[in-house]
Design a protein that fits this description.
By secondary structure, the chain is mostly helical. A hairpin with a 6-residue loop joins β3 and β4. Helix content is 59%, strand content 3%. α1 packs parallel to α4 and α2 packs antiparallel against α7. A two-stranded antiparallel sheet has the order 1-2. A two-stranded antiparallel sheet has the order 3-4.
Length: 247
């Protein structure tokens, strides 16, 4: 929605083409719109593109957790050995999450620094133009907050996996039998991020095996946050389109 309305920009993440403004006016509002608002929107669009790159990583990580590791004994003659979900392939998937998340976090820092710079956005809006800028600022801050929630799920997935790796590092002792057995905590199964929901990308939502996996549960939660951001974009897009007409 935003990409179809805002100003033309060249960014490394290659977001969808943006509409070009064919005229310009030199006013304080238009200068602020050009230098501050447009730059912030560009950062939001870049983050959207980076978030999209995480979707295949979720699917690959789910596959690697069930098939990427060596077979590990269950220490129980009644249960067959299972692939080790803590394996090098999943570690690379988590590293990819952290790489994307780190870039998104840096972009969000720049966005928030711009929006909270009182030399760019007035603390107290007095004129109509200042009120328009403050409205844009409030809408962009709200969008950045939603992107931060998406980032929390993304990096929370890696943190939860690391925690579970430590928790499941060694077999425990079964008090009833005295025999060693595999840990029961599992991976990505104990955190608050695993919550129900129906919002997910159609291509992955149709993959029942993936969506019923622990990684699929994390992805479902991630897409719930994405949907909240997308729901907030139309109102901002309308404001941007209207304000751009005066410049």
């Amino acid at each position: 929605m935003l990409a179809a309305l805002v100003l033309t920009a060249s960014v490394s993440a290659s977001p969808p083409p943006l509409k070009t403004i064919t005229h310009a006016r030199s006013t304080p509002f238009c200068t602020a719109f050009e230098e501050n608002v447009r730059r912030t929107v560009q950062g939001v669009l870049v983050n959207d593109s980076l978030f999209q790159r995480t979707e295949p990583v979720f699917l690959k990580a789910a596959t690697d957790m069930v098939s990427g590791g060596a077979m590990v004994s269950s220490f129980d003659s009644m249960h067959a050995a299972q692939p080790d979900p803590d394996n090098a392939s999943v570690h690379l998937d988590m590293a990819r999450f952290e790489e994307l998340g780190g870039t998104i976090a840096k972009n969000l820092q720049v966005i928030n620094d711009l929006l909270n710079d009182r030399t760019r956005f007035p603390a107290n809006a007095k004129t109509e133009d200042e009120k328009r800028l403050m409205k844009l600022r409030a809408q962009l801050l709200a969008l950045a907050k939603k992107q931060n929630a998406e980032l929390n799920v993304l990096l929370g997935t890696t943190d939860q996996y690391l925690f579970d790796s430590f928790a499941n590092a060694y077999p425990t002792v079964n008090d009833a039998t005295g025999h060693a057995k595999s840990p029961e905590a599992g991976y990505l199964s104990g955190g608050r991020l695993k919550s129900p929901g129906d919002l997910a990308d159609a291509s992955l939502a149709s993959n029942g095996i993936f969506m019923n996996s622990a990684m699929g549960a994390m992805y479902r939660t991630f897409m719930q946050q994405v949907a909240q951001e997308q729901a907030a974009e139309p109102e901002l897009a309308r404001t941007l389109e209207e304000d751009a007409k005066s410049c």
